[in-house]
Inverse folding.
């Protein structure tokens, strides 16, 4: 059986290199037959695409897509650099 | 000289599914800032379609807008076409060069570009061994030298450096240490410390920290959108430090 570290590395590479996603910085963890994705992306569709690409790269694992969409507020207080 | 208010953000990673959403947050930017700066990774895949989308999102802003591109914007080898689309929309795009603009009473000089990696002093790659490693380090060194020359040749009241990659480690805190060499290089900070500047803005490190300083004491801010958690930051520079 392939070591989970190599599977995780392959999934992470797929998320970065697949033309549908090109997303760096997504954490991939494998526990048994479960695969967990964590990180932040700029939109909900990108999150769904990442889940799909991860599933294709490791079809035997159950993907838990815990990626969050970046939420940001209005500009806050100015910083004075004096 | 009066103070200057700089709005800044990076890593907005726009795509078709979020078209128009970021623009809403730029409403009223002229009330908050005198100039808007973007530190790269404006797109996800660096396609021309995404570049045009970003250009539309930034078109016609009521304050001067200056940008550099990031590694994502280079992915499809269309960085020059993306830059052209942005310029058509009125955005000043820097590629290892500089620009001086008049902001009210302040003559503002901005130097920058994508930057590159290699790591930080004592734990970095050097121009030794295989051609591939030499090329990697030489690319960063060439960029740093370009910025140094541009800063030295520039006459301005205030000088700001725009980069995508980070010149220091402090603003990477939160990222895995193992990937620091892919997040920036001390050569960028060394060049800016040598030539002098008032502020360095960068992005790239989504899990990093906002605030840091070069060894020479120049303030550095990581303005990646996930780091800021707000549409943009506003930094005030000037003699009285008040906005």
């Amino acid at each position: 059986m392939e070591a989970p570290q190599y599977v995780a590395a392959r999934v992470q590479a797929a998320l970065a290199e697949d033309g549908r996603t090109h997303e760096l910085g997504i954490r991939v963890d494998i526990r048994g037959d479960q695969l967990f994705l964590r990180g932040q992306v700029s939109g909900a569709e990108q999150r769904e695409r990442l889940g799909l690409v991860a599933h294709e790269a490791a079809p035997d694992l159950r993907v838990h897509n815990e990626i969050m969409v970046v939420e940001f507020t209005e500009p806050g207080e100015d910083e004075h650099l004096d | 000289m009066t103070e200057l208010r700089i709005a800044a953000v990076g890593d907005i990673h726009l795509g078709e599914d979020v078209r128009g959403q970021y623009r809403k947050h730029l409403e009223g930017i002229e009330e908050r800032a005198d100039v808007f700066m973007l530190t790269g990774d404006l797109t996800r895949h660096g396609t021309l379609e995404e570049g045009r989308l970003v250009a539309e999102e930034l078109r016609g802003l009521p304050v001067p807008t200056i940008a550099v591109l990031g590694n994502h914007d280079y992915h499809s080898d269309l960085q020059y076409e993306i830059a052209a689309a942005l310029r058509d929309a009125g955005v000043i795009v820097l590629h290892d060069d500089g620009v001086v603009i008049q902001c009210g009473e302040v003559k503002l000089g901005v130097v920058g570009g994508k930057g590159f990696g290699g790591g930080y002093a004592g734990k970095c790659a050097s121009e030794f061994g295989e051609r591939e490693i030499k090329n990697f380090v030489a690319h960063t060194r060439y960029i740093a030298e370009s910025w140094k020359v541009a800063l030295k040749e520039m006459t301005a009241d205030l000088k700001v450096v725009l980069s995508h990659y980070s010149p220091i480690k402090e603003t990477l805190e939160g990222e895995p240490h193992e990937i620091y060499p892919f997040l920036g290089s001390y050569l960028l900070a060394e060049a800016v410390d040598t030539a002098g500047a008032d502020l360095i803005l960068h992005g790239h490190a989504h899990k990093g920290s906002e605030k840091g300083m070069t060894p020479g004491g120049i303030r550095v801010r990581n303005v990646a959108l996930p780091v800021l958690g707000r549409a943009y930051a506003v930094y005030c520079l000037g003699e009285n430090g008040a906005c």
